[in-house]
Design a protein that fits this description.
Structural class: mainly alpha
Oligomer: single chain
Largest sheet: none
Distance between the termini: 18 Å
Order of helices and strands: HHHHHHHHH
Number of helices: 9
Helix content: 55-70%
Radius of gyration: 18 Å
């Protein structure tokens, strides 16, 4: 099935950035279904994935409506999830990375590293928590309503994954070593979360929501507290900048989308 053609406004792109973050992280978490280190965590990771899918569905539906109001074609959540090309996804790069603290081609042969997974979940949950808190005051009443519901889920995700980060970081020598490796793997991708551009400025001007940079201070306070309790230390800043929120993704994104979109593109319009 052919891809859809989008010409989104800054307002639509602002919403899609959040929607795509939730959707792509949910896809990564779904890979743990049946493979987590304990049954309880298998269920927990799957449920968190479903929470993120729910948030993404609401945001994608709203983005489609905003696209139509701006004079474009109306798209539903399925079209936006399954029929966009890689360059049209606007999630930060860190959510598309494989579930591992290693940067190697063979990572797809196994579910991943649990420590890296819970650390990334914590980083994103804290980030989303501050987005939802701010967006509750958006002039866009639909976006504000989505944020109010999603905030409760983000707080649970933060607590659950934070508890695991502490347990592993301040655990055995081996678990601490693995969490240190996870921090080193993930941290270079964090700067992207707080970079402003014209989309942020347009959102602020329209009263839609805050700039990404406005979330950094509160996010930093929360993450510093978690890392200190977990006896982990954030590495020094690096010059590298990822660019997923601009539609320029890592080599992992194409594989992820191929798997996620395969059924819809192979059987267009299929219904259960």
């Amino acid at each position: 099935m052919s891809s859809i053609s989008l010409k989104p406004s800054a307002e639509v792109r602002y919403v899609l950035r959040l929607a795509d973050t939730c959707l792509i992280l949910a896809q990564r978490l779904s890979e743990w279904c049946g493979h987590a280190p304990a049954l309880e965590e298998d269920i927990a990771l799957t449920n968190m994935s479903l929470d993120l899918v729910g948030q993404s569905r609401a945001l994608l539906t709203h983005a489609g409506q905003l696209h139509a109001r701006a004079g474009g074609r109306a798209f539903d959540e399925d079209q936006l999830a399954y029929l966009r090309e890689e360059r049209d996804f606007l999630n930060p790069t860190l959510v598309e990375l494989p579930n591992t603290a290693e940067n190697a081609a063979h990572v797809r042969s196994r579910p991943g590293d649990f420590g890296f997974t819970v650390l990334r979940n914590l980083v994103v949950a804290v980030w989303l928590k501050h987005w939802w808190t701010a967006l509750q005051h958006s002039r866009d009443t639909e976006l504000a309503a989505i944020a109010a519901k999603a905030l409760k889920e983000a707080r649970y995700h933060e607590q659950h994954n934070g508890d695991w980060v502490v347990r592993l970081g301040d655990g055995t020598d081996e678990s601490h070593r693995r969490m240190t490796a996870a921090v080193a793997r993930l941290w270079p991708y964090l700067a992207e979360l707080f970079e402003d551009d014209a989309i942020d400025e347009a959102a602020v001007s329209a009263g839609l929501g805050p700039r990404a940079s406005e979330l950094r201070a509160a996010w930093q306070v929360d993450m510093d507290a978690w890392l200190q309790t977990a006896t982990l230390q954030a590495p020094a800043s690096v010059a590298f900048r990822s660019t997923g929120r601009r539609g320029v993704h890592s080599e992992h994104m194409g594989y992820l989308l191929a798997e996620m979109q395969h059924l819809q593109r192979s059987h267009p319009g299929a219904a259960w």
